[in-house]
């Protein structure tokens, strides 16, 4: 079999390597229009801070190594400019000379990825405006920002790439601004979780502009829509990516509603001899039950393996994607899986969420820290829809456990029972994921009721009664205006101070003491008590 692969990085290189493992005699030619194949896109931002000291470290394998180790032909600086379906050939252009030739295939794999979106803004074409997609891009950006005259750098876009570039340039002693059009950065996270990220970013002395539009890029500054000026000797645009579908479109391959190339469960396009994987395609979302676009390395590589297998008649079960990702933001590790609460509601799920803040290790251990975990589940089935975790410790481990359960169609009951490894150095006997599930099952079975931190402002304006069960000293440091302070340690003696005939909202710092207070009140005949789920730190009404 002769297989031609378009794109020589995540999906493309994985396809080629898998084919070789399946078939020693296959002829495999991989075309890459850039000068490098098989580089770590995900590590690109880390060159800006020196974590990856030189760009050659970003390249995992060059064409010579592909040849010697896998007997694969990687043709770099050669762009496929047309797919000739009827002849089963591709037209290839040498990038340096513009010469063209045709190469035939039995099977064709498209893994051309996605390109950065450039907004139609005045000044976008200037040489101090950058995007980050490949090794050449990061070399250019790094070289430019090394000039001492380049002090202020503005990042347009607060997604994964924007935030990672910001952090790494900050580590290189640059003064950074992030400009984000939406009210929050990091769209996969709900706004309550994103606030923690915002704080971390601002604490690092990065200027964060949200709800901000770019009106103009000038040589040393950006003008925002509302007239504010943001200093910028260099600008990095990272507002998202769009799938590279030009070749597919010109070859009349079917494009899905999301704008990605349409494929079946084996990644076969509308032409049976042509496969497509990675950022260029649309994929079935296991939770949303509809096609989505998902630009992540793990799915691209796994899809490549499935597609290569299919070329050789090997079947794989395709469950679809769930969208798991992680990022470090300064001192915080952040991870998410499945869908967030906002998406769940928009998609019409009857969904609820719990938000727990629990130690990631036994509190006596030196590196124990609070972990914020939000769990989203369907009502009344308890099926887990998604989760987000943020903390200094292993947020990714917690999210990976939940990702596993979502993949298996698991529920909050399953998560409550899952037995995880434990030592005080690694976790707590009842891990934070178990705790979140316990709270979720309590809520589901109506054992107590909750409101979310995001409801607090509305309730306050409706003159609701808040009981703050933190200690007096904590209360003195800041509290919700007009809240009644009855520390949990005094609750039983002072219960009579809490009226029985009106709704009462109990809160503390992390919703744990307040949960105990709520249960005590319920067991003493109070019927209108609710716990405020989430952190006091998320309530912005305190005095
Ligand atoms: P790519 O890996 O982009 O490869 C496509 C290649 O095809 C490109 O090199 C392109 O030049 C080539 N090509 C396109 N058209 C042609 C043509 N006509 N002829 C020849 N060659 C062509 N994902 C994560 O999961 N975690 C992360 O932490 C993460 N961090 C990232 C950080 C950065 C800076 C970037 C840019 C991406 C990151 N990603 C991350 C996303 C991840 O890299 C992509 O999802 C993944 O690489 C997609 O694989 P792909 O094969 O579809 O496309």
Automatic annotation (TrEMBL):
Domain Rhodanese: 460-541
InterPro entries hit by this protein: FAD-bd_OxRdtase, FAD/NAD-bd_sf, FAD/NAD-binding_dom, FAD/NAD-linked_Rdtase_dimer_sf, Pyr_nucl-diS_OxRdtase_dimer, Rhodanese-like_dom, Rhodanese-like_dom_sf
Coiled coil: none
Keyword entries, A-Z: FAD, Flavoprotein, Oxidoreductase, Redox-active center
Pfam families reported for this sequence: Pyr_redox_2 (PF07992), Pyr_redox_dim (PF02852), Rhodanese (PF00581)
Cofactor(s) listed in the protein's UniProt record: FAD
Family annotation (CDD domains): RHOD
GO molecular function: oxidoreductase activity
Family affiliation: Belongs to the class-III pyridine nucleotide-disulfide oxidoreductase family.
Name of the protein this chain belongs to: Pyridine nucleotide-disulfide oxidoreductase
Species of provenance: Kurthia sibirica
């Amino acid at each position: 079999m002769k297989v031609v692969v378009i794109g020589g990085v995540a999906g493309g290189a994985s396809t080629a390597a898998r084919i070789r493992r399946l078939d020693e005699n296959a002829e495999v030619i991989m075309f890459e229009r850039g000068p490098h194949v098989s580089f770590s896109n995900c590590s690109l931002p880390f060159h800006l801070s020196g974590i990856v000291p030189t760009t050659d470290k970003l390249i995992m394998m060059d064409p010579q190594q592909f040849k010697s180790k896998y007997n694969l032909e990687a043709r770099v600086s050669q762009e496929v400019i047309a797919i000739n379906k009827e002849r089963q050939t591709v037209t290839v252009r040498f990038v340096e000379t513009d010469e063209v030739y045709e190469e035939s295939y039995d099977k064709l794999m498209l893994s051309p990825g996605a390109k950065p979106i450039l907004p139609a803004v005045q000044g976008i074409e200037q040489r101090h405006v950058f995007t980050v997609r490949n090794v050449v891009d990061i070399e250019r950006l790094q070289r430019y920002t090394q000039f001492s005259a380049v002090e202020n750098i503005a990042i347009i876009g607060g997604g994964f790439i924007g935030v990672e570039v910001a952090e790494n340039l900050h580590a290189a002693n640059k003064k950074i601004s992030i400009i984000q059009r939406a009210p929050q950065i990091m769209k996969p996270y709900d706004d309550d979780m994103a606030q923690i990220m915002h704080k971390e970013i601002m604490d690092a002395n990065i200027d964060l502009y949200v709800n901000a539009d770019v009106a103009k890029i000038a040589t040393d500054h950006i003008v925002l829509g509302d007239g504010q000026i943001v200093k910028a000797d260099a600008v990095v645009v990272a507002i998202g990516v769009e799938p590279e579908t030009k070749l597919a479109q010109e070859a009349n391959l079917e494009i899905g509603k999301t704008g990605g190339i349409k494929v079946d469960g084996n990644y076969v396009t509308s032409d049976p001899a042509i496969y497509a994987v990675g950022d260029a395609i649309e994929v079935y979302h296991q939770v949303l039950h509809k096609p989505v676009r998902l630009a992540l390395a793990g799915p691209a590589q796994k899809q490549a393996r499935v597609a290569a297998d299919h070329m050789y008649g090997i079947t794989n079960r395709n469950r679809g994607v769930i969208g798991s990702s992680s990022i470090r933001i300064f001192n915080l590790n952040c991870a998410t899986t499945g869908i967030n609460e906002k998406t769940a509601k928009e998609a019409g799920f009857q969904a609820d969420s719990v938000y727990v803040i629990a130690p990631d290790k036994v509190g006596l251990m030196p590196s124990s820290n609070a972990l914020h975990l939000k769990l989203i589940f369907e009502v009344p089935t308890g099926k887990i829809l998604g989760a987000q975790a943020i903390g200094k410790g292993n947020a990714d481990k917690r999210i990976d456990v939940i990702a596993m359960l979502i993949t298996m169609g698991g529920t909050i009951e399953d998560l409550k029972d899952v037995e995880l490894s434990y030592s005080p150095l690694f976790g707590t006997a009842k891990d934070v994921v178990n705790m979140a599930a316990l709270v979720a099952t309590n809520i589901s079975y109506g054992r107590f009721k909750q409101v979310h931190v995001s409801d607090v402002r509305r309730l306050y304006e409706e003159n609701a009664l808040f009981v703050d069960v933190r200690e007096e000293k904590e209360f003195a440091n800041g509290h919700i205006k007009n809240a009644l302070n009855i520390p949990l340690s005094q609750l039983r003696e002072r219960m009579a101070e809490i009226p029985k005939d009106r709704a009462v909202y109990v809160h503390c710092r992390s919703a744990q003491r307040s949960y105990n207070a709520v249960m005590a009140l319920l067991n003493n005949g109070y019927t209108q008590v609710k716990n405020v789920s989430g952190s006091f730190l998320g309530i912005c009404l305190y005095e």
